[in-house]
Design a protein that fits this description.
It is a single chain. The protein is an alpha+beta fold. Among the domains are: 84 residues, Penicillin-binding protein 2a (Domain 2) (Alpha-Beta Complex), CATH 3.90.1310.10; 265 residues, DD-peptidase/beta-lactamase superfamily (Beta-lactamase). Helix content is 34%, strand content 23%. It contains 20 helices and 24 strands. The strands form seven sheets. Strands 2, 3, 4, 5, 11, 19 and 20 form a seven-stranded mixed sheet that branches. A five-stranded antiparallel sheet has the order 13-12-24-23-22, sandwiched between helices. Strands 1, 8, 9 and 10 form a four-stranded antiparallel sheet that branches. A hairpin with a 5-residue loop joins β2 and β3. The chain is elongated, with a radius of gyration of 33 Å. 45% of the residues are buried.
Length: 585
Amino acid sequence: MRSRAVLAAAVIALLVLWGRLLYLQVLQHQPLKDRVGSLYDRRVVMTAERGRIYDRKGTILALSTPGRSVYVDPNEVEDLGATAARLAAALGLDSGQVYSLLFSPPARHFAWIKRLVAPAQEAAVRALQLPGVYIREEPMRYYPNGALAAHLLGFASIDQDGLSGVEFAFDARLRGTNGRRYEGRDGRARSICTPEGAYIPAVNGRSIVLTIDTNVQDFLETAMDRCFQQYSPVSVTGIVMDPKSGDILALAERPVFDPNKYTEYPEEYRRVRAVTDPFEPGSMFKPFVFSAALQEGAVHLNDVFFCYNGSYQVGPRVLHDAHPYGNLTGLEVVVKSSNIGMAQVGQRLGAQKAANYLTAFGFGRPTGVGLSGESAGSLAPARQWTTYTITSVPMGHEVSVTALQVACAFSAIANGGLLIKPRILRGVMSPDGCVLERYTEPEILSRVLDESTARTMITNVLRKVISEGTGRLADIEDYDLAGKTGTAQKVVDGVFSHDKYVSSFVCAGPVQDPRLVVLIVVNEPSRGASLYGGTVAAPYCAEVIKSTLDYMYIDSRRRSNGVRLASADERPTSAKRKQGAGNAP
């Protein structure tokens, strides 16, 4: 009887053992193999290098440079508390935070302590020679020109992901594909081999060439800095465009930030207001309605408008001019920026035609430039216009626009009547420098005005705004410019404010053959005897356009004999920036 019991127990024990072996060797074979492999094999990610960003002449605007990051293998740390304290002191971190990173499950072999440390911190960590503490090389995004063109460029995260501006807009082109390799390790976690075939190389990202020119960008930002210092506004936005190609040669915002340390700045410092922040344009909007009326024959330059000595009643509402005017010709209505005169121009043109032309100029829809967060502004369809709207819109009320929309629409007048899509991308190159994409031909969206109408606006109307009208502070000696001022009261709590304004100016030049459009928008200037756009923004626009035209080698036949724009090969590269991309598109 006893022998039977022993036999039965032995059989049961063998069945349990066989079952356990079956479970471990068959059902749990792969999970256990993977667990053992994790102890003795390590997958090392090979980070791809993010593509570079160049300006139109090959100056490097953004690149990835080698950085150093500190990580640990918690299984190799001998004294968690002492290691945490010494690492925290070397890296300027909280010791409790470091300890929580070290105190991890035994199967975990990797924990970041601090990414992209400073050289001094790297040296301090190396000097400690702590078991289980390692330093890994990984790419760090670097912007060699600091804050120059910061808003347009945007920035990339510590993981090399584009987060804003061009870095975000063209992230798919700039980012590469990470590679990997597998390393065998001995019992002390030292690399002993790389298994054959266990290596997939990283593929670096493509580089992009922008339309901007760092020299023009510098001209614009220098002028905006002086404007910002003089008037202490909430913000300043500036754009320089080539009206014939749609190329954005410069785009800037103030306040400014440094993309190398973007986390140190508030979000409002980093916003690209030129595309994200719509505003009521005020009188800067008048040329678009007036050119439409001129095109339709509803108005002629010599038509006489009685401006009611500065007070014009439309229903129960009374419109006012900054100065009392009696009779003004159509030309003088724009030159002197009469609200009452423009209200009558709008009434002659009519709501439907006005709405159609303004839509054709690009208002009420995004420009499609490609930057994230772009606003469409607001332009109501004609069916929603009231008797007040047809008098408000011509003087820049009941409509909101972005700075880039205005620059594009003014370019349409400057280039002979064509609305051209704005462009910030000029080309794309492979990691080895081969040109993959090239964008040099303008993308024409529509014809807004006849060439003769556009020419009349530039030479006969908008030129006189600067030579005789509200933009006289932009009348420079070397070049004939055409432009328009804007001074709009901001709406605060549903009513127009009497101390908060948007002061702006847009100009093109030279009038004989416009090659540049420059726009500066000053949001809430707070200092100065006069806060009109002609005072606050016009002088700085003129400064930018003069510097840029001089730089572009417009020859000495500037006023009466026409102008010539030197080819890219004839123009000098700034001595201040000498890095080159070689075969940039």
